[in-house]
Design goal:
Length: 149
Amino acid sequence: MTKQFSFREDPHVPKFEDHAPVAVMDAQCAVCSWGAMMIHRLDRSKTVRICPIQTPLGAALLRHYGLSPDDPSSWLFIDDGIAHIDFEAVVHAGRRFGGWGRLCTLLLIVPKPLRVWLYQCLARNRYKVFGRADMCALPDAAFQQRLLQ
């Protein structure tokens, strides 16, 4: 586990409003675009921000946590200054959202090594299987307000 709000001490991470959770996602991935829309629908607090990895902030946050913005196969969810990665991020976000989002906790039935392997397979093949999309071009004005760019 990483130190809470450790990114604040990193001079390479641009300053941003970090009082609310942030989901750092690949804005060109169809699966991530769908995931961003699910965050928008399930987040009853309407506070979770979405940050494309293609932005300077998104790339810096990935690098800070040892992930590569050049190979955006990881999903990063920062809540209360603590980073959650990949399926663990999905489970944490689902718990946080409550309601239908809690269904994500069913992923915990799958043993962790298998979850890691499944996530890596999905991430490596996401463009081939699901194609590309542009989450930043989604026309929903309320969704656009969530984007950190």
